[in-house]
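thread: overnight batch results

M.L. [08:02]
morning all. the overnight job finished for the chain we discussed friday. pasting input first so we're all looking at the same thing
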Amino acid sequence: MKKIEVRCPSCSSRGFIEVSEEEIEKAKRGVFAVNLAEGIICEHSFVAYIDKNFMVRDTFMADFQLELPEIIPEKSIEPKDSAQLDSINVSSIKLNLSASLIAYVIRAILHKRKIVLIFDQLFMFDDVQRFFDYITRNSFETELVVISEDQYNSESYKDFIVFNRKDIIKDDDGIINVKKLGIERALVQKFFEEYEPRPSLIYLQNGLLKAYQLSETIVDIVKNFKKKEKVYSKKIIEDLSNIHNVKIQLKYLDFLFEIVESYFNVEVPKSSNVSNFLGAL
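M.L. [08:03]
and the structure it wrote out:
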């Protein structure tokens, strides 16, 4: 067993965990995820990602009670799609992009924002671009550029959200609110925890496609509302279940409402908090 120090991403408390060296062998193809429940390090639950050198690459707040809708993998993959999948070095992505960064970028995409990623590893540029192109395939439009620090000029990217590998460099509208990243975090957590590269990539792509399709359906429902008609959570959840044969939680529905308003630019005429809550019971 190997003793490793980890730090809580919420309160910065530090503590040690023991990890089996055999388990870390799995990190040869990326990183190994360790779920830390409340009380192990502090009062928070989070995930620590550890590489094959027993280094903590990232710590990541996660809601272990959150249930994503069932995401069914594609039954077959066309040859051209298979080639696109094989062109992405998933292990390199997991080693060089933190879980937090991927969640941040996904949130920016869902808010239809232009994105700059500043990278100091030139060999990663094409792989990072292919990765985000693939996971948003057939769903969200993505305007994302990967550049070096020397190429970055703040005047040229006034309307962009800007990230580097570790930090949010520019987010003028406060889109990257870490308190509202529950669903994005859950998707990324599943991506990192899946050991095989191809299934992990397909899962993330299908997860975003599912969110896109469900949000499109809500847009259609809202556009067909009569004047002054309001949205009730229970009714929308029932409609999505009937149309897509999917079961979702209220938290996921709020996530879809945010996409509808931020990405599709369609206002959701929600009922009052009390009546909406009662309507969801």
